Fold these 3 entries.
Entry 1:
Amino acid sequence: MTKYNRSNKPASSEITPQGVYLSRRQLIKGVTAVGGLALLWAARPKMPGSDLETVEVISTPAGTLTEGAGSIAPTAMPTPVTDELGMDLTSLTDITGYNNYYEFTTDKTEVARLSKNFNTSPWQVEVGGHVSKPGIYDIDDLRTKFDQEERIYRLRCVEAWSMVIPWLGFPLHKLLAEVEPTAKAKYVRFETLADESQMPGISAPWYDWPYVEGLRLDEAMHDLTLLSTGIYGESLQPQNGAPIRLVVPWKYGFKSIKSIVKIELVEDMPVSLWMAAGPREYGFYSNVNPEVDHPRWSQATERRIGSSGRIQTIKFNGYEEQVAHLYAGMDLKANF
Ligand SMILES: Nc1nc2c(c(=O)[nH]1)N[C@H]1C(S)=C(S)[C@@H](COP(=O)(O)O)O[C@H]1N2
Ligand SMILES: [Mo]
């Protein structure tokens, strides 16, 4: 398994503030970096009255690591926490304070405030269409039925800004396997709640609510495609799409539809809210592609939130190796 796919089953004891989370992660990286030294340090003779009793050995998919106060040699410098490309994680403050969620407002810095009291419990997700076993899933069932993994993904908005986000969630294919798509299922259509009483942005008449997105079935079945329920080890906040949202890291951010209430397996390509709003500007595929500009701006570079300057945008947002085969033989300019 690649680094972005580390398994992580957060216990309630792991629900920690970001600062603690980061230092814990840095600790783990530090241990990895010093390798044998840390093992020696952990295995050193225990002496009464020392801090050694606090050393805790935990098991991770990467092997057994030692953590806890005093478990690392002072020479083990904490290293920054990054994604698999070495890019720093975006701060929780930025991830929860700079959002696109048009059901609330188009003002990115006001989404958090306006969505603060959004009611995410009880919450159900209806899964149906061309499936053998349609069902209505309670959010609590989805959280417990499927292991919640941590996935560190880059999120590239079509507006040419980006973040690096440590999501919690489970791959969509696990849920799809449960409902058993039939031979007629060719696409997956997703819908967000549209509740005018809670979502002030829905009064805007120029969008065709509810927010709808879609994937081809093979894109939906790809292991990178995540249903996310959390960020930084904590439950999603309303502004990030609580209680459950899609994350498709190789596509522009708008494909990652928030606060999902309905997932439908369909025969025909769904028309997304953005395709309906601007068919010349927003296509069905919306794969991140620095070679295909938006009609009104370049997609060659992006602004990483929390850093200055601009960085090169990478084809398929850096996931080309994993997803390019899905588009073999397709003209990516025509199928934008
Ligand atoms: N329902 C819904 N989902 C949505 C949006 C939206 O307006 N409504 N905005 C999209 C866009 S444009 C982006 S970039 C991402 C932003 O996700 P974030 O705020 O969690 O970073 O959510 C996407 N999902
Ligand atoms: Mo976006």
Note: Residues 3-327 form a domain with the Sulfite Oxidase; Chain A, domain 2 fold (CATH 3.90.420.10).
Entry 2:
Amino acid sequence: MGARLARLTVNPDAIAANWRWFARAAGKADCAGVVKADAYGLGADAAAAALLSAGCRSFFVATAVEGARVRDVVGAAPNIYVLNGAAPDEVRLLQQEELMPVLNSLAQIALWGDAGPAALHIDTGMNRLGISPDDVVEAGLLLPKPKLVMSHLACASTRGHEMNARQRAAFVTASHAFPGAKLSLAASAGAQLGEDYLFDMIRPGIGLYGWAGMDDGNPPLAAATTITAPVLQMRDVPAGESFGYGATKRADKPMRAATVALGYADGFLRSFTGSGYGVSGGARLPLLGRVSMDLVILDATAAPDLKAGDEVEFLGEGAPIEEVARAAGTLPYEILTTFAGTVRKNQA
Ligand SMILES: *Cc1c(COP(=O)(O)O)cnc(C)c1O
């Protein structure tokens, strides 16, 4: 393919630097790397290689197929945990690739049997995945020596949310059913809630890709990816003319506009309409009118030298992920998987 014009570049050094930031935050605890969902759209191969070179030795994916792919990149030694557990038709692949399922129920513990080492997820209040607290004692009898006992916080992005302390306490109580087991509770945001939340391992995902995950007060992390698209045409638009579908936006004065090769076919969400922007030479160029399939129109007033063929940045150092996500009314998670993920697939 490679027919579409928007380009994504991933910066492995930024991913490595962000991992080191979390490894420092982890103190004595281990720092894993979450590379599920194709490393949040950036490409699991490149991300896993960058993390491995930074020193990461524990990886988390969602499915056995994702795990097999990471195994190819990182080699035999690192631990690869599969968060969605073990479905009956995944058991063979899990064994073959020496992946560790994170078992989520008594039924999964029974299914897995003694097929290999496994981890255990305890539900402490999120009601998404995990063994419910009522079943923890029985789980401890069935699988007394899990490689890792973990849980996941629902509200870690909000410092001081009462759920955090409540889930932590439930986790500590549940862990008594597995004496000596290694424990893990925190993802990117949880790792910033203080030492009490670090246990034996933290599991950052989004932080590795450039956003620390807190509602406010995020530390600056390195931009792991840049997305650019080229200007196809410059136009001088007289006052009173309109831009794009629906003629929703009018020029209230003579304007210079740039038509850029980016649209929802590239995962550039229609909800950027009215609030999105591109960046050229340090200047922010607001979107004019609606996003369309392959094109957006930008107000080029602030970039007088912009010309056809120039690249405009839509995600990266000039267009930080947190602000870009806010402009589309979504979170960095969705910007990476949807926008970055689509641009990447389109250029593969
Ligand atoms: C996705 C996920 C993580 C990583 O979360 P981030 O917020 O991206 O750091 C960690 N643990 C579990 C169980 C997850 O599902």
Note: The pocket of pyridoxal-5'-phosphate is lined by residues 34, 36, 83, 152, 187-189, 203-207, 213 (CB under 6 Å).
Entry 3:
Amino acid sequence: MSTQALVSDDLQKFPRCELARFPTPLQRFKNLEKSINSVELWVKRDDLIDFGYGGNKVRALEYIVADALKSGSKTLITGASAQSNHVRATAAAAAYLNLNCIAIYWGSPPKEVRGNYYLTRLLGAETRFTHDTDRSSVDTMIRLVEQELVQGGALPYSIPRGGACALGVIAHMHAAQELLEQCQDREINVDLVTLAVGSGGTIAGWVLARILYDHPWRIEGFTVSRPARELTDIVRNLVQQAAILLNVTLNINLDEVVIHDGYIGDGYGIPSIEGNETIKEVAVRQGVFFDPTYTGKAFAGFSDFMKKGHYGDIQTAVFLHTGGEPVLFV
Ligand SMILES: *Cc1c(COP(=O)(O)O)cnc(C)c1O
């Protein structure tokens, strides 16, 4: 049996709670190609995942929530910023499965209830704020709320910020396998897959799939939150954890995880000038919406790399549209 068949079977053995239909579409964005040195540009539309306003977070939740149901839990606890796509998708999954959802946000309640915060409340999640601008205050409060519920006799299930955990990584490996099949069917030879990196779970899945299935492309991420060096360690760690879950031994090289700095702007969740210009250009030329926190900034980084000639050897690129459109309404 080849490694590929072995690992493919292994991927199937994790329980999945079906929330959406896959594969997501792979579309050519011809109208943008001129502005990126005429490379062939394809976009994998994970923004179109047909559940709870979509986005990459739904993929991970299918596996995480299946695990929560298996454990008999009735309450999901998670958190991030008030505009978190992950929290909104978790609230949607909880609503659909008749579970409670407690959303924990750093900082204080925003003046206006908009975007993902609006949707999360609409979905019936209970929302709490840490009143501390330090993002890690969310992790602390998740643990506290969990303890509180356990002491009250409940069985809560906590999901880390961004859904970045080994099960989530395995979910994103499926996305990479989808792309492989779509490219084989349509005879597309992809040189580069590029995407936004936040908590790191998504790129970890793509990297692990590339290593285990020998995918033909390289993968490069653009960070929208932490410095790339810090994220690289987090991603390598996530890759290792998922490999352990899959029962494969892995020696991940330093150069397997490529993440670029330079396009965060003034900070995570703060729109940047280049990001906003990108959103406008993609809307005007393609009729598609990117978002100000992730995809706008990441695509701005990718096109800048193109313009600066860093990708001279690339002929066909795929950009992963990971979603996030509700933030356009904030
Ligand atoms: C969370 C998110 C990302 C980044 O995914 P990570 O797994 O956190 O790195 C990218 N785009 C959107 C829209 C997201 O919500």
Note: The chain has ten helices and ten strands.
